[in-house]
Amino acid sequence: MNQTLDILKKNGLSVTEGRREILNLFIQSDGALAHADIESNTKISFDRVTVYRTLQTFVENGIIHQIPTTDNTILYALCKDKCGAGHHHDEHVHFICNECEKTICLDDVTVPSVKFPKGFHPLQSAMVVKGICSDCRKN
Amino acid sequence: MNQTLDILKKNGLSVTEGRREILNLFIQSDGALAHADIESNTKISFDRVTVYRTLQTFVENGIIHQIPTTDNTILYALCKDKCGAGHHHDEHVHFICNECEKTICLDDVTVPSVKFPKGFHPLQSAMVVKGICSDCRKN
DNA sequence: GTATATTTGCAATATTGTTGCAAATTGTTT
DNA sequence: AAACAATTTGCAACAATATTGCAAATATAC
Question: What are phi and psi of B109, to 5 degrees?
Fold first, then answer.
């Protein structure tokens, strides 16, 4: 069965053209996407507002997650199976390549736990690493 | 000698009222600051543009550094001594409190190194942790 | 104190994100 | 398959955030 459709139905979301296309973009893309990427890469052009709302819906349903960045942009990437509405489990490392500028989810690299000073109670960790990705290394 | 003045001169920056006040704000504050915080907290009101440019100058000179976030804001915090123009060394963990919403630099908690897949060449790491800070824990 | 270089503030503009509401689309029921 | 209810979309307006050029003001160097 179509993977895109599968995901939407599993989350009880109505299947619309916008959601299908945007979700497809994530599945096809190997890296993370920013709002701007989505707006320019979809064949059919959707309203900015629709893109915003679709992304929001996807985040709320545990389909995609946000990646922290230092430049005023929000990046989104597909979640793994374990995520669902309300609870995300994206404790993997994100890699931003300085050369191709892609952001890649290193799904197999878990964020290590660290020792915190007394009184600090950690709940959720994120780790972002900049460097050169394996693709750019080859060239 | 005045610490603010000291930092500015050490970096070869001309000493202006705006730079003095904004840098002071960072020194006094225990957490990280967003653009908005700075605009509203300085006694004398500076133009938005001035604040933007001042922050940029400080980042370029290794006086402050940016902290990654998932909500479209840029946070800034003071750098330690080791930072200078062009080279930052802020490999410490940042803690965002869910309760007081403050972002704190845990200068003594270093970002642990992790094993990357073949081909990935890390250069700079950042780690952001959400949870409850020690101050809010007490109450 | 004067000259030179830098910085500031204003105005204009660009980019990004949000909200209300009517029209269109999707899912549901018969 | 048609009709109804619920959801989603696009438009318009708006709000917030960020950037640029340029003349006036300020800081540093001499």
Answer: -100, 105
Q: Judge whether residue B45 has pLDDT over 90.
A: no
Nucleotides of D under 7 A from a protein CB: 7-12, 17-21, 26-28
CA of A5 to C1' of C29 (A): 23
Give residue-wise pLDDT tens across range B61-74: 999 999 988 888 89
For residue B38, name the pLDDT band (cuts at 50, 70, 90).
very high
Q: Which nucleotides of C are covered by protein (CB under 7 A)?
A: 6-11, 16-20, 25-27
Q: What is the predicted pLDDT for the residue at A63?
A: 95
Instruction: Report CB contact under 8 Å: A129, B129.
Output: no
Structure tokens that stand for A4 in this block:
């895109």
Domain that holds residue A52: 3-138
Question: How many angstroms separate the Cα of B75 from the Cα of each of A71, A76, A99, B2, B59?
Answer: 10, 20, 24, 25, 11
- Provide the CATH number for the domain around residue A107: 1.10.10.10
How many domains in chain A?
1
Cβ-based neighbour number of residue A29 at 10 Å: 15
- A139 interfacial to chain B (CB closer than 8 Å): no
Bridge partners (DSSP) listed for residue B129: A125, B95
